[in-house]
Amino acid sequence: MAAGDLAIRMVFLSQTLFGVLGNDSLLYHYLFLYCTGCRLRTIDLIVKNLTVANILVLFSNGYHNTMTNYGWHHMDSDFTCRFFPYVRGVSRGVSIGTTVLLSVFQAITICPQTSRWAELKVKALQLVFPSIILCWIVNMLVNVVYPMYMTGNLSNKNFTNRKRFGHCSSVRHDQIRDSLYAALISFSDVLCFVVTILASGSTGFILYRHKQRVKNFHRIKVSSISSPESRATKTVLLVVSTFVCFNILSSICYIVLSVLKDPDLFIMNISAIITACFPTISPFLLMSRDSRISRLCFAGKRNTNSSSLMRKI
């Protein structure tokens, strides 16, 4: 049991450190591009919002669980038991909504250059920022149940009518209300997953058709989809597939936790670990396939080599 607890603690700590480091590096990359005068794309705004949501997920999920697992009992207060689950719920919802927006926007971006799609692309560009704001507002309102019903164990001596979540507890509702809440969570998550899969499927189909046209007309050098845009699309597909895999498991864990009368600590830890997997991995996927980062690295290497050569001369 001691070995298992130590393993859980190390996983929480590793996810938090590497995840925050990766997302901070991605934000620094966009800040550097902005300071050097590079023109940021609309998709970069969506990725930056996803990065901020991922940092909040890791902070609220990893920090709270790591501190409580290492015996910081002051983390059992009412404020922390209300604040961290609320931030985790809001940021997780924003992360899901932003990934859906990312997949839909990318699908619209690579559509054929016709007059009908051109109008849709212009509208999509105009709706990106309002959609991000709406996503934050909706999730802040939906997750208000956490500060309403969650409290710390230190302020409660009677747990007869309360559901315990490790170091925190919430008001115990009847089975019907818990089932309705689980259905609400599952419906919104399933809807987001379906939209994401459909958008990603259409994106993959467009890329496949484009590849077939290139094979048939390989002598024509003009292409409807540029190489950087194709790489960006493949990156989005990779991130979206990772998102779907981990968040389906996370949604299942959330539903199980909402239905069980007294959730087991092992299930809660597994749910927290799975929830943090996508925010930890996604920034490294985005950076590894962003050609602008590799160009900056090579430029920095060339400058270093030039400086060394000048010193030798």
From TrEMBL:
Signal peptide: none
Keywords of this entry: Cell membrane, G-protein coupled receptor, Membrane, Pheromone response, Receptor, Transducer, Transmembrane, Transmembrane helix
PANTHER family: VOMERONASAL TYPE-1 RECEPTOR
UniProt topology in membrane: Multi-pass membrane protein
Matching Gene3D superfamilies: Rhodopsin 7-helix transmembrane proteins
The family this protein is said to belong to: Belongs to the G-protein coupled receptor 1 family.
Subcellular location: Cell membrane
Protein name: Vomeronasal type-1 receptor
Residue span, G-protein coupled receptors family 1 profile domain: 22-286
TM helices/strands, residue ranges: 12-33, 45-63, 93-112, 124-146, 180-208, 236-260, 266-286
InterPro entries: GPCR_Rhodpsn_7TM, Vmron_rcpt_1
PROSITE patterns for the chain: G_PROTEIN_RECEP_F1_2 (PS50262)
